[in-house]
Amino acid sequence: MSHIRVSAVSYLNSKPFIYGLERSEILKNIELSIDSPAKCARKLLGNEADIGLVPVAILPRLSNYEIISDYCIGAIGPVTSVKLYSQTPLKDIKSILLDHQSYTSVALTQILAKSFWHIDPEWIQAEEGFEQKISGTVAGVVIGDRTFELNDKFGHQYDLSEEWRLFTGLPFVFACWVTTKKLPVDFINSFNNALTKGIEAISVLSEEIRKTARYKVDVYKYLSQNISYKFDREKHKGLELFLNYLSQK
Which of 102, 114, 189, 193 has the highest local Cβ count within 10 Å? Predict the structure, then answer.
């Protein structure tokens, strides 16, 4: 079997997956790249990857796909790393800068704005460094590890997973493992087993990260409590509802 191209996300929340893959026999059969969520999406859409940990907002853009894992990047309540930051309350926001690294969180913000917050801001596609422009009535959606540095810098912050939970009563799925190819069942099982080993090693991994990297977050709490990896029935319901709202945009 030729090497299967796998695109994984570069954020802290994906490290258990990468940890499991890199310590599994399956590593010999894959070509693993570490990318931003938006790049993972572009690679799968452009046939530059066979498997991607992709933002769920791109699923309607795939003509044929399969979700191949029991795991996802999800959250039951506050995720802490996907937020809308503002200096003003929601009702006073005039425009929102949209994170260039994101598809799903941008769509989620727009759904919440229309159907839950009942605000109608101007939407601005943001570029690198846009976090510095969040000021006055200009808010911004920020995702990933950059949020850890921003949590004490703005008067108002809205955790998008928590807001979705308040809106729908359901957990939220940000990304899942997707393929557009017909892959051998044995490979999919081995892939899933590798991910399982990574999730089961979160305690060990968190300690390794603590010794080698500095994050302004409790890594173990973030990976074991804020991120919810099991792609269970409730998350499938949450994803189905999100995709339904997405189809109405």
Answer: 102
